[in-house]
Amino acid sequence: MPLRRYLLIMGFGTLISWGALVLVILNIDPFASGFIGLFSFYVMLFLSLMGTFALFGFFVRIIFVRRSVLFRHIGVSLRQSVLFSLLIMISLMLQANNLFTWWNAILLILGLALLEFFFLGRETPKAQHESHQQ
């Protein structure tokens, strides 16, 4: 898939997610709808944040890292946007249940950071192998 098409689809999907989130906020009463209402809110918020962070991360990488292949930035920005969106969603869910404390936040950040370091460690040999071939 060409990069331009990916960015257009990602941007369009993000706009649809934000629109759906606004519709959920305006039309669904969380107290009357129960699980379905909260589930809809959290899913739409997660998708909206993930798309926004992925596009933002991709464009920031284009600006600051000019010498690398653009397609490498897509996977990294998408993965990091999922992790950051998970951080926000889990924090909101903990806060909704009055379980969010500073040490829970630190544990959550450390856990997601370790997961990111795991993925970065798995990418390093592949990137080194490709740089030696050129």
Structure overview:
The chain is mainly α. The protein has one domain. Helices cover 88% and strands 0% of the residues. The chain has helices at residues 3-27, 30-33, 35-64, 70-96, 102-133. Helix 1 (3-27) packs antiparallel against helix 3 (35-64) and helix 4 (70-96) packs antiparallel against helix 5 (102-133). The longest helix is centred in the last third of the chain and has 32 residues, at 102-133. The radius of gyration is 18 Å and the shape is flat. 11% of the residues are buried.
- What is the β-strand count? 0
Count of spatially separate domains: 1
Query: Secondary-structure element sequence?
Result: HHHHH
Anisotropy-based shape? flat
What structural class is derived from the secondary structure elements?
mainly alpha
Taking the sheet with the most strands, its summary is: none
Distance between the termini: 24 Å
Strand content: under 5%
Mean pLDDT: 89
The number of helical segments is 5
The value of Rg in angstroms is 18 Å
Overall helicity: over 70%
Low-pLDDT windows of residues = none
Map the helices and strands.
Elements: H1 3-27, H2 30-33, H3 35-64, H4 70-96, H5 102-133
Task: Give keywords.
134 residues, 5 helices, mainly alpha, 88% helix
In short:
This protein is mostly helical and 134 residues long.
